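mind reviewing this stuff:

——
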Amino acid sequence: MKNYLKSFGVQHAYCAEDCTGVIRRIKYDTNTNSFIGFSTPLRDGVPIPCRFKTNSLAELKIWMETYEKAPLLNAHCVQAIPSANQTVAPSSFVLSGYGTSSKYSSLDILRRWIFIYKKSLEQDVRIIGFSTDADNKYLRGMRLMSGFYANMPNFNPHVDSSAFSIRTGDWSRYYFRPEQLFVFMQDPTHLVTKLRNRLLSATAELQIGDTNITIEHLQQILDDSELTKLDHGLTQTDLTL
């Protein structure tokens, strides 16, 4: 990661994490000389690398009978954040991926994020934040980390020399701590999907401020002769799906 970002002159990045369902199957990986497909054990929230490495068929048989085959693949991706004067943004890339189950806690997630953050900082890469879906465990981890009506009595992650301050001014609806180690957001794919489903619903409405936005507003954009598809990226088919 360090060499890739350094080649673009980038020192800041944003991480994303999400799970997807996979076919439960055990395979031998020649690159790591280990078996993959098991639900990877965690140590302080971090997956143990090459945990299932053996030359013994007897030990492999015990693993097959003892350990769960992973129903999920958890992937971590990184998107570099170039400076304002850079015209080319580096492509995102996969930082890690491993088989897992849903048997982990919000604290495991939090420890994993902090681990990624600290290891990246050692490589002169500043992780600005993390994004994921709205799973309850992830949301709780975000709340604990950001201090949003939650805290950890014995752990203050925002008390760090590399933490940054958010100047809120007279914002009356900002409920987070002014000091944050990193920030959070729901990943854009899920956000856009939710907005799309709401906009294209025949019964639901999307409210922004005091204004309700419905599919009729999209139809008005399509009917506007002064706008083309290059402006809005819509077709009539989009509104009839």
Remarks:
- The mean pLDDT is 85.
- The CA atoms of residues 185 and 199 lie 21 Å apart.
